[in-house]
Amino acid sequence: MSKAKTKPPILTLSPEHEQQAIDKLKRLFAERFELELGSFEVAEVLELFTREIAPHYYNRAIFDVQQHLKERFESIESDLWALEKN
Hints:
InterPro entries: DUF2164
Strand content: under 5%
Distance between the termini: 72 Å
Pfam family, one: DUF2164
């Protein structure tokens, strides 16, 4: 596989979490698809997902947090209006 310029992953895992993810993916490929892949091949799959798919989940999480904070700030603003003296 030739390596063209690829963008760096938006998220990185600690070595321990990366190894756990590799182990889980190896089990998934073996149990569900009867594919016995080595750690190197599975690490490539993990890198692809990290680089190409994880940003979509990351951005969605940011959007969800923004919505939650917006609702929370509106609630706080309403509470402050209720405390205001005439």
